[in-house]
Write a structure and sequence with these properties.
Strand content: 15-25%
Number of helices: 7
Largest sheet: 5 strands, mixed
Radius of gyration: 23 Å
Length: 167
């Protein structure tokens, strides 16, 4: 994996409260070597692991099994996500990975920032558009969509919109 991919991933995750972990990952005296790792520090408490290039998917199955045992013994409630870079593994290996972690596949070793953002989307907070960009005149837009054929009942409902639920 190029450091560029890890840097882009780190920038995205750091911006929402994750921090990078050093490799090998040490948890309660056990060491695990992934391509990279991040941990949520704010709202998200996910442990995000990166693999698929230096650490093959087949090896990740065993690593995740061991990691899960250590996390269980330490009574950790931290969800584990695996960002899998590179070619998609066979169905059997993918299913075994999915039994041990939430798997976010990227399907390429050199993803574009957009591909990486798409894969990481479930870990990032939703970015909602501001209400002003949604509709500057929602009643006017509704009237425009309905056209000129508006029944008297529809007109009464549209006229009551500014009054809220009481209208």
């Amino acid at each position: 994996m190029t450091t560029g991919v890890l840097e882009i991933m780190a920038d995205s995750l750091h911006a929402v409260g994750f921090r990078s972990l050093t490799m090998p990952l040490e948890i309660h005296g056990a060491e695990f070597l992934f391509d990279g790792a991040f941990v949520g520090t704010g709202v998200s408490q996910d442990l995000v692991l990166v693999g698929g290039l230096r650490v093959a998917p087949e090896s990740l199955v065993g690593l995740l099994a061991g990691l899960n045992r250590v996390l269980d013994r330490s009574a950790s409630r931290r969800p584990v996500s695996l960002v899998l870079l590179g070619p998609r593994p066979d169905a059997f290996t993918l299913r075994r990975l999915e039994e041990r972690a939430r798997v976010l596949t990227v399907n390429t070793a050199e993803p574009t920032p957009a591909e990486l953002a798409n894969a990481l989307a479930v870990l990032l907070p939703l970015r909602l558009p501001s209400p002003t960009t949604l509709a500057s005149d929602p009643v006017g837009q509704l009237r425009k969509r309905l056209g000129t054929r508006v029944s008297t009942v529809e007109e009464a409902l549209i006229s009551a919109i500014p009054d809220g639920p009481d209208g």
